[in-house]
Amino acid sequence: MPLLSEALATALLDCAVSVVTHVPGYGATETFAAWNRARPTPSPISFHEEPAFTIAHGAAVCGVRSATLLKSHGLAKAANSVVDALFAGTVAGFVAVIFDDATGTHSDCIFDADALLGGIGIPFQRCNADSAAEALRAAFAESERRQLPVAIILDAADVHQEVPNPTLAAELEPHGNLHWERSIAHHLVSPLFASYQRDRLQAKLRGESLTAIAEALTPPAIPITPDDLPELWQRAALPLVPFFQEFRAIRGEVVAGDTGLTSLFAFPPFDCVDITTYMGGSVPLAIGAMLAGKKDVWGGTGDFSFIAAGHLGLVEAVTRQLPLKLFILDNGAAVVTGGQPIGPGMLDCVLAGYADAVRRIVLPATPQQIRETLQEAAAATEMRIVVVKYR
Prior knowledge:
This protein is of the alpha/beta class. It is about 40% helix and about 15% strand. The protein starts with a helix and ends with a strand. The model has no long low-confidence stretch (mean pLDDT about 95).
């Protein structure tokens, strides 16, 4: 009989899961090792649970089944992304497999993981060892029916337990039937869409069909940038217009942004951003899109968001040797939270390890410089980080 870790890995393969992320932790590590043994090309570990969860989410939004294997303590670190992933939804199945160290043998403390999952609001099921592999397959079917991330949770110590060969009865539709289409009202987490996305999420959690939800809810009006934006946002967006006028000509198949100034250029006439979640989430979302096979993917962020969380995603891109393309709007302040200043040199300090990849636009109102810099970045076969200076 297989160990539970092996049965879970087999279930992931049977479900045609393409992207699996993992941060080392008791239970999750053993399962990830079993997954890698069954794969012709092993997947790398991640260093932080927030980008690990977000990479898998980005892949699922773009139509590829994905999973993340985390300890319950790690899910607490990823909670920011988990919450926004519920509002952004998915296209393909996305399951978080959570390993609970209930005795604290391999953890710094003991806490109620079920209460954490329930408070976040992600649909989940606690499984015993014998039912976990079947529950994982059923979770993918549920995720695709609801177009939501879902979770299963199990005792981490059970991965060493022998279990019966799973009878995987739940039927999944062919993987090729899942495809992403741009729909910013569904995949762009934004204050302008918050009420609609809350109502849509609540209907999904009640188990209503996607068809019924579409018939019952009127999608939000899509504003024109900058004319229809609130006054404060309009003032912040106006200096960025020359950049996005050029960027829209070179943008690739998917552009991931943050819930900040970048998301304002998801709207017409620019249509420059497709997916957003939390501040700093653009980088791992873009990585997920790349792993899903999307071409010429870009991420876009602000200096505050990048310093706060986006740089965690750059580590993931380097680990996977991905030619990520990223632009950073360097305005020296946390504009969307009140304009709090960012200390001089902070962005350069964080970018120091990536100096060879950095390109700078120091005349952000000059179309020629913007165009030439973006074209060089888009054509590069290595990572490029375009810093647009507005200070």
